[in-house]
Structures are given as C-alpha cells and as structure tokens.
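PROTOCOL LOG
Step 1. Enter all chains and additional molecules of the complex.
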Amino acid sequence: MKSITLPAVIENLGECIDFVRACVGEYISLDKKMMEIELVIEEALVNIFSYAYPGTPGQVEIHCDCGDGTKITIEIKDNGIPFDGFFSRPDPDIKRDLKHRKIGGLGIFFIKKMADEVRYHRSGGTNVLTVVFYV
Amino acid sequence: MTEASERGGFMELHVKNEGKAVVISVTGRMDAVSSPEFELEMGKLIDEGNINLVADFSELNYISSSGLRSVLATAKRLKEKNGKILITSLKDIVKEVFEVSGFITIIPVYDSVEEAMRSL
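Step 2. Run joint prediction.
Step 3. Record the structure below.
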C-alpha cells in the first residue's frame, strides 16, 4: 500500500491525481477506466478541499492498495467536519430541464456511479471514504 | 489561447469567430482547477455580445463535475439572452459523464462542429 498526505487545498489536486495514477497505472490498461478512477478521486478530494475545513487549514491522506491487481482500494481520509449524509443525500435530478437544473450535487453522484464499491465512515474525528474499483 | 494553471489539469482554449457562432476548441482537461478559466472565458465572449457558442470537445480528454458546472452556468447565462452553447464531439469519459449526469439531454450535443453550425 502506498500513501500520501498533503494540505487539503485545490493547488494539490494535480499532485494527488498524479499519485493515484502512479499507484494504479500498471494495473489499468484502459484509458477510460483510469479516467473513471481519476474522476472519483477528484470529486472526493474537491469535496474535502471545499467543505471539510471551513476557515481552517487541514490535511488529506490518500492510501492506495492494489492488492493482487484485481481490485484497487483507495482510502481518502480527512480530519475535518463530519461528512454527514454522504449516502442519504439525494442524487441530483438528472431529468430536470436546463432552466431548473441545479448547479451542484454531482460530485457525490459521480463517486457512487463510477466506483464499484463506496464506503464511508467516521471514527475518532476522521472521515474515511473508501472507494473500490474492480480491474 | 488561454492556459490554465499548472497546479491541476491542463486546458487550452482556441477561440474562432465563425460568424453565426464563436467556436471554442477545448484541449486537455476540464477539472476543478481549469474549469473556472473556461467559465471566465465564456463569460468574456458573452459580455462581448456573442450569444451562440460552439464548444468543440474533440480534444477534451476529461471532464469532472466542476467542468459540467461551468458548462451549465454558461448555458444558463446564454439562455437568458436567448442564446445557447452547443457541444460537439464528445468521446470516452467525457461522453460518459454527459450521459450519466443527464447533461446530454439538456445541452445540445452534436457529432461535429459542422453539424452544430448547420443547426444554427
């Protein structure tokens, strides 16, 4: 398993994505699959950068475990405010027309749609989001 | 041409006024770092009086919810002016993102710039 810890700021998005890409690259042959993984990781990270640490700096940790190469497990941790409602938050209404379509809400939706497994729990002041991709 | 910061996804915009519409060719990635730049540039084009924009995504390799947000914000702004943004040449993950999010039904999407221009 490989890990990285960085300040939870948007300026580090590129480095975080590069880290994940380097970890999983040898197991993922399809560009599209790699993009799906990057998308899930970006959405999770941007959520943390935007909301986890209101008015205060914080860190984000990413742990990447490729096991035997058939399943990739990525854990994203932060010590920010509780991420209540990860699973209870309703999906955006994707059938609304342009005028009524709301701007937000797609990040979590994509995480749920693109990852093969998604788990969230909070323990000891740490939010832990686990996403799993089958290879 | 406009380039996003090197902190995140690389994005380049090439803008060409084709009379009926302004065609913006987007190269690279529209992620949380680069998408605000896209929205800003579209805003400038709208402020200059352009109400029909055609965004050519044939060289766009990746788009996240931030990218969709900037497309939606642009579309809403243009709608207020009785204009629109048309997107062309979706592929791979970009096409998947448009389909999964339902954006493919609310933003006019075409296979090519030529097809989009003919619709105007």
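Step 4. Note key features.
Chain A has a mean pLDDT of 92.
The longest helix of chain A spans residues 31-51.
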